[in-house]
Amino acid sequence: MSRNNNLNEEEEILFFYEDPKSFDEKNLYEVNRAPWFYHLVNVLGLTKDNFMEIKHMVEDKKNNILNLINYKSYTDNYLKKNDTMKNMLCAYLYSCKTSLYEYSKNINSEQNIHFVFTFGNITADLDSVCSSIIYSFFLFIWYSLKTNLIGKKKDDPLMFFIPVINIKKNDMKLKILIIWWLEKCGIENPEELLIFNDDLNLLEVLKNDTKYDTCLVDFNKSENNCVYNINNIKSIIDHHILNEEMKNKKITKSVFPIYVCSCMVIIAYFYKYSSEFLGISLLNRDIMWLIYGTMLKDSNNFPKDDFRKRWIQSDLNIYLSMKKYFRIPDIMDIYITQKFNNIRFSIDLKKFGIENLLFVDYKDYNYDIQGKKFTIRICSLDFSVESILSHENVDTLVNKMCELCEENKFAAFILMGSYMINYVFHKDIGLLFFNEDITKDKLLTALIANQDINLCEKGFKKITCKNESRNIDLFQINNTSYSRKRLECFLSYYFNSL
């Protein structure tokens, strides 16, 4: 059977509605594509009876979801404190900031409080940032339904659901496209409104393992030097290869294949199926725009040639249903996609600093092959790798690359470039092998033989690292749908086969 037929069959069973009435506690941690309500059981402690009780109360009241959780009075209260905020989502994020500040001071006291932090990955790309916000708000909605409709028991803690952008606050200035989109969605000055992984109040709470739980979105493995205790992870939402160490832990996991275009797709289905269960929409326009922009960006507006490469039918289905519900015209897709691309491909390197390209969008991949441990960093650039390596300030970038390799003991540093020429999309790649942990010739031979990436040799660029001459091998990627996720997949299979 062909790969596409296999993919088609798997696609059909990826996203389907499941009802909390069918919940089997034995499967809570066993299934890797957990339905939406598993996470609510694990994180909020909801039971089958709770779900049915909430459903009946919602049906009886027949009201807007935000009215049911008294969100208007909640929002109005925070808008009075900060009248620069434009919408409900701003009020939510502001409440996260103020609650963390207020309650972190006496975190070791007898106060019955509990935090649930949703961490995105260390790349902090648009999918990761927006998914952490939207998933946190999903948990907040259900917690509010539970407390407002069923009532809060005496021993129940006061809970706060807080998205954490998993970079240092000072690094947010490098996220030009993300800042632009958040501000377009009414989240003004996101550097000040959001919480980052070096927030002092956050770090204070994280000292006390009994006062918080952690949820991960857009990644599913423990990071080097992560600020939270990995034993506090309760929920994972992702579309990357499931890490072995997470499989047997008591974590609810909704981990889908890499060809799902974004983590946000999974969370959007959580909102959809929650809404179907309750008979009332959990979405409003403020939430919708973050979901819409993320899926549009990660699919690149769903071009037909990228079908089953960059996106699948389930991605498009949820996207189109949301567009129809909120009456978003097709011209908006074209306009926003062009704006995204204009911002991505028009960075002024003299102002931005060429070396900062190495910190905009990267991931580290750790391998353990027959007892030999090593790490590869893959950095995505919105420039041609070949052109960057011919830039007048390339020495600044090369020196920083070599410095990072030495500090982190990287076996290889890979640059993946995306760029446009006359409105046509292109990709290339450069590979710097820094030590002998990887047999360079074997890996390059395997990459060249791989039909999916479809490489064409472009030679090499000679560089100097601390008086030592090295080569960066350059290739054109002829499959413009090929992503870092797919390279991650290839490398995982390649090294596991050795």
What would you say this structure looks like, in words?
The protein is α/β, with parallel strands linked by helices and 498 residues long. It has 2 domains: 339 residues, inorganic pyrophosphatase (n-terminal core) (Alpha-Beta Complex), CATH 3.90.1640.10; 148 residues, DHHA2 domain (Diaminopimelate Epimerase, Chain A, domain 1), CATH 3.10.310. 44% of the residues lie in helices and 18% in strands. It contains 20 helices and 11 strands. A 6-stranded mixed beta sheet has the order 6-7-8-9-11-10, sandwiched between helices. Helix 13 runs antiparallel to helix 14. The model has no long low-confidence stretch (mean pLDDT 92).
Lateral arrangement of strands in the main beta sheet: 6-7-8-9-11-10
pLDDT < 50 runs, ≥5 residues: none
Strand proportion: 15-25%
Termini gap: 26 Å
Count of all domains: 2
Q: The CATH topology of the largest domain is what? A: inorganic pyrophosphatase (n-terminal core)
- Give the fraction of residues assigned to helices: 40-55%
Mean pLDDT figure = 92
Which superfamily, in CATH terms, is the homologous superfamily of the largest domain?
Answer: inorganic pyrophosphatase (n-terminal core)
Structural class: alpha/beta
